[in-house]
Amino acid sequence: MRKIIMSKFIFASLVLAGFLGGCATSNTPDVVTHYDRFTGFRTDIIPDNLLEVTGDVREVVWLNASRVFKDQQDFDYYLEVHYEARAETGLINIAPGTSLVLVADSKEIKLKGSGSLNTHKSRGELVSEDALYNVSADELRAIANAQKVKVKIIGRNGLVERDFTPTNFQKFKKFVTNYVDGGS
Questions:
Q1: Which of 12, 18, 117, 118 shows the greatest Cβ crowding within 10 Å of its Cβ?
Q2: What is the mean pLDDT of the chain?
């Protein structure tokens, strides 16, 4: 678990730079591979999958996917929610348990996680939190192959909903093709 947290924070500066700049970083690749310098194990991750919204934005949300190797052959898949907002908007305090629900073409995918309690951060006028969820290969395929995906993030202080855009689908399809079905 510590390896997952370490690898996701490698990309936090890219994500934060995009938020502070007012848009997502455009030069971040769809999928990045990171090798842990101590274990040599690999993590493949969608590092900057912003769930865009039009109109006034109170908060920004990313939904990243990763494949984390436990040893040279075995790995797990995860979805990571990264939430950021101005301090006056505050955190949603992502709850433990079923706090991430994706609706992929009317099929609900309910994911359980440990919540965001230990990930709360404050940087100047910004606050952020992260939550991590185990996900199966079949659930990733359902998300990537859907025509429509709605993301619901449930917190103690509210609910955030976003819809996938073509860019989100593109990133998930590439991830599933290369790292779920392709076996890279």
A1: 18
A2: 85
